[in-house]
Write a structure and sequence with these properties.
- The complex is a heterodimer of chains A (about 150) and B (about 400).
- Helix content of chain A is about 75%, strand content about 0%.
- Chain A contains five helices and no strands.
- In chain A, helix 4 packs antiparallel against helix 5.
- The radius of gyration of chain A is 23 Å and the shape is flat.
- The N and C termini of chain A lie far apart (about 45 Å).
- In chain B, the strands form two sheets. A five-stranded mixed sheet of chain B has the order 2-1-10-5-6.
- In chain B, helix 3 packs antiparallel against helix 7.
- Classes of the chains: A mainly alpha (about 150), B alpha+beta (about 400).
Chain lengths: ~150, ~400
């Protein structure tokens, strides 16, 4: 067994058992609700989506983020790295959110008020605005650090 | 003796160390920014946003499917606009918080040994509904407000029951982790110090997540906060974009009512337990006292817009038909009545509110067919899906 250097990250006292009981009951209520309205919830589909969501995150999203971090650590050195990391995190969130908007999966030809924007341009502007703001923040922080030194 | 025997059993049940490969190796994850403090701070933030989402979501569900003990008032007029706007905005704001949190604790997925005892096993198993549920709720919510439905279940039912499962798992998680909060946030915690690297500092990582949360909110919240409409680059709706200056949820064509709505023989009927059933033409309705009200249309999708409405008070129609004083009223559309959202219930408060109208006009013009021509229900403090369009019947 490996030696734990950190203190244990979970406490299993009376509070845990109280919460496990309450939370377990709430979960069972959710499962009961989903099963008792099977026509609407399609339990097999819903379960597939719930488990699939965890697999997609843990198996794709997180490894891609970790790999990007490793590449960044090797390729970008010096004070620029922090701002690049910051920029990639913010941009990544905005891009991920924008996928259904840019692709227009939900567009309905007879309802132009749904997804009314040009989201490719909107995303580009959002990324430029976010990156520029990050650049300014990091630039100011660096100047202040230099003047203090 | 017993303890020793137990340990041997536990040790025998543990997977052998030779299975400890890839991400399971010690030191496989190297980022110094990933700290317990980051996990705790982001966990607390998510605790707040998920609670807001859950409470406002359950409220919206109760309003649309009211049990006998629940009476949703008609005032304040803009309350639902705020609760549902908050539901969608905090859901969107949770995206960077959740991704940051999951990134901060990701190595724990590969901890060794995987399970230490029964309580630990319960805690770890509950992470599957917690993580899967959280990701699913945010994904399905975003997909739904952009009207992308890549699934075979009904979104409201699946989203609602998955929320109960997720919140249950969150309660288990809080029970296991509550003791960590104070030590992790203490100024003396080693996590508070920053390692000297070129990359983001620990504090910088949290500020980055905060910045991402702010950015995604700024670029979307204009769909309900009118002064920020100009910044809504990534908002699925613009509150001033649509026929007569506000968005359309369902068009007449997709509801299949175009011909019926344009039929010159259109009549509104008031029936049920009334003493004088009525059948009124558009001219009859126009000849009645007209009332004007500025009320928000607040969609379950999180957008809202203020609109000036003009039409006949529902309470005047109920009086004219000699409806029993304490009656509820069901407002039915020209749509096929077996379809979802083709009718809505006016409880006593809503039916008798002086601003609850069957509107003939909006923003000074005859209703556009996609806004419900010839006649639509509009009342204070109601979800948009309960502001029935193309009204054909009021059943008391």
């Amino acid at each position: 067994m490996s030696v734990q250097q950190e203190p244990p990250d979970t406490k299993f006292g009376p509070l845990f058992w109280l919460c496990a009981g309450t939370g377990g009951a709430v979960m069972l209520f959710g499962v009961w609700g989903a099963l008792s309205r099977a026509g609407a919830t399609r339990p097999v589909w819903l379960a597939t989506y719930l488990v699939g969501a965890a697999i997609v995150h843990d198996g794709i999203v997180a490894p891609v983020a970790c790999a990007t971090g490793v590449v960044l650590r090797r390729r970008v050195r010096g004070p620029l790295r922090a701002s690049v990391q910051c920029c990639l995190i913010v941009s990544g969130v905005l891009v991920l959110f924008s996928i259904p908007l840019v692709a227009g999966f939900g567009r309905q030809p007879d309802n132009p008020s749904l997804l009314p924007g040009n989201y490719t341009a909107g995303l580009a502007i959002a990324l430029v605005v976010a990156s520029a703001s990050i650049g300014v923040v990091f630039g100011l922080a660096r100047r202040r650090a230099r003047s203090e030194a | 003796m017993v303890r020793a025997a137990r340990r041997t059993l536990a040790e025998r049940l543990l997977p052998p160390d030779r299975l400890r490969v890839g991400p399971l190796r010690e030191g496989a994850f190297t980022s110094e920014v990933r700290t317990r403090r980051a996990g705790v701070v982001l966990g607390l933030a998510l605790g707040v946003t998920f609670t807001v989402c859950f409470v406002t979501g359950v409220l919206s569900h109760l309003i649309q499917n009211p049990p006998s003990w629940f009476n949703w008032p008609s005032r304040p007029a803009g309350l639902y606009r705020i609760t549902e706007g908050l539901h969608v905005a905090t859901g969107i704001a949770s995206i960077p918080l959740l991704l940051g949190k999951l990134w901060a604790v990701y190595p724990k997925l590969f901890r060794w040994p995987p399970v230490e005892n029964l309580a630990h096993a319960i805690e770890r198993i509950s992470l599957l509904p917690l993580v899967g549920g959280s990701v699913f709720l945010l994904f399905s919510g975003v997909a739904s407000i952009t009207r992308w439905n890549p699934w075979l279940f009904s979104f409201p039912a699946a989203h609602y029951w998955a929320a109960w499962i997720t919140i249950g798992a969150l309660i288990v998680h809080i029970g296991a982790k509550a003791g960590l909060v104070r030590p992790a946030l203490a100024p003396s915690s080693s996590d508070a110090e920053d390692p000297a690297t070129d990359g983001l500092s620990r504090r910088g990582f949290l500020w980055t997540i905060a910045g991402a949360t702010g950015a995604i909110t700024l670029f979307t919240v204009g769909q309900t906060v009118r002064p920020l409409e100009f910044a809504g680059l990534l908002a699925p709706r613009r509150p001033t974009e649509g026929p007569q200056g506000f968005p359309v949820n369902k068009t007449a064509r997709s509801a299949g009512v175009t011909d019926l709505a344009n039929d010159p023989a259109y009549r509104l009927s008031i029936e049920g337990t009334v003493r004088t059933p009525l059948s009124l033409s558009l001219d009859d309705l126009r000849a009645m006292p007209q009332h004007e009200a500025t009320l928000p249309i607040a969609c379950v999708d999180g957008w809202s817009a203020n609109v000036r409405w003009r039409g006949v008070r529902v309470v005047d129609l109920l009086d004219m038909a000699d409806a029993p004083f304490d009656a509820d009223a069901e407002v039915q559309s020209l749509q096929d009545q077996s379809k979802a959202y083709s009718s809505s219930l006016l409880n006593f408060d809503h039916a008798h509110d002086p601003d609850t109208l069957l509107a003939l006009e909006c923003n000074g013009e005859r209703l556009d067919i996609d806004h419900g021509y010839p006649l639509r229900l509009i009342g204070p403090n109601r979800p948009g899906v309960m502001q029935t369009k193309w009204v054909a019947k009021v059943v008391v």
